[in-house]
Write a structure and sequence with these properties.
alpha/beta; single chain; 364 residues; 8-stranded mixed β-sheet; 16 helices; elongated
Length: 364
């Protein structure tokens, strides 16, 4: 069964896992396989390290637009990197009700200086970018490379978090007219001299200019909030769709099992469609030895011990997962894939008899 059979019913493939297990190279190789079977494929990454641009040989211009990868395949292969600020700017320009509202947001000092680095902005802009690409419908398949486990969970929770924030009392408080036309705090103005003292204390503590910019930021965005809510709801439905497949990548060794099982359970319990679990970079089983090397300089014995360790951990993981979904082993390659030929070599090992993926339900 070809890799295309794995993702034939999955226009969106989300590659997840902990750090350092090879998610980016697996995602790029899956994109290579998909394009090799004639499907117009986009490989996207929201990983701040941007390793995908090196793996697929694209430069920083992929932050601004989708770049076609010259791989000589039947289907077109493109790559895209997340630019949170650029996505935010496009979002404002596209959905602001008029040019004045657009400029009011884009020129707001809080937006210019802080909004691109606030906690949660990366994850939410990733959601918005995914929504943009999925809505365009110009690709037969999107392969999404995500950051390590915890940040990937933040990405998956971003749609529900934004809806929760928009429905919260905190936003209603932020939207109140806190400042008058002269830039003074309205509540403090009503208190006379005491209010001026309070205003001065707040100015020294946090800076009234910052508070004014924040208040204006939230008020300027008010016309866009309903659109945020609608798009967040739609992308959440997309991620939980039966046409979206999650591929979980793990590393070898017993120490990786707990993290892999944690992520698998999180995905299943949250209603995402979990497909195969790929255990990457296993030492070849034919080299397995019986005991740990007595001499640390004995490379052959060390490789044998690592191969036996990897095999035992793989069996443990398969026992824990059971028949709920396939666990596939990918061997450690001679060199880390860093270009198209290297990715093609990895892709040769991503064509296992996986079989169909079961829908969300009891499992890990």
């Amino acid at each position: 069964m070809s890799a295309g059979a794995l993702v034939r019913d999955a226009p969106l493939v989300v590659v997840v896992g902990s750090g350092g297990v090879g998610k980016t190279t697996v995602a790029a190789s899956l994109g290579l396989l998909s394009a090799g079977e004639g499907t117009d494929t986009l490989v996207m990454t929201f990983d701040p390290s941007l390793r995908l641009k090196d793996a697929l040989g694209v430069g920083g211009e992929a932050l601004d637009r989708e770049i076609e990868v010259p791989a000589g395949l039947p289907g077109r292969l493109s790559a895209s990197l997340l630019d949170p600020r650029g996505t935010f700017d496009r979002l404002v320009a596209r959905y602001a009700p008029d040019a004045a509202a657009r400029d009011r947001i884009l020129h707001n000092r809080f937006y210019r200086n802080l909004a691109g680095s606030l906690a949660g902005v990366l994850e939410y802009m990733a959601v918005e970018r995914l929504y943009e690409v999925a809505l365009e419908g110009t690709h037969g398949r999107i392969v999404l490379d995500t950051p390590p486990t915890r940040q990937a969970l933040d990405f998956l929770e971003a749609p529900s978090r934004i809806v929760g924030f928009l429905d919260s009392g905190a936003l209603r408080i932020a939207l109140r007219p806190w400042f008058d036309e002269r830039g003074h705090l309205r509540p403090a103005s009503a208190l006379g001299p005491l209010g001026r003292s309070l205003e001065g204390w707040l100015d020294r503590l946090v800076g009234l200019d910052l508070l004014r910019d924040m208040a204006e930021f939230f008020q300027a965005f008010e016309p866009l909030y309903e659109g945020f809510r609608r798009r967040a709801t739609e992308v959440e439905a997309l991620l939980r769709s039966e046409r979206t497949l999650f591929v979980l990548v793990s590393g070898p060794g017993e120490e990786r099992i707990a993290d892999t099982m944690f992520f698998a359970r999180q995905l299943v319990e949250r209603g995402y469609r979990l497909g195969p679990i790929i255990v990457n970079r296993l030492h070849p089983p034919e080299l397995a030895g019986d005991t740990a090397p007595a001499d640390p300089d004995d490379g052959e014995a060390l490789i044998g011990w690592l191969a036996r360790r990897d095999g035992e951990a793989l069996r443990q993981l398969r026992d824990l997962v059971g028949a709920s979904r396939p666990v596939h082993a990918v061997p450690l390659l001679d060199a880390e894939p860093t270009d198209i030929p290297g990715l093609a070599g990895l892709a040769d090992h991503l064509v296992p008899p996986w079989g169909p993926s079961p829908p969300p339900g009891p499992g890990p």
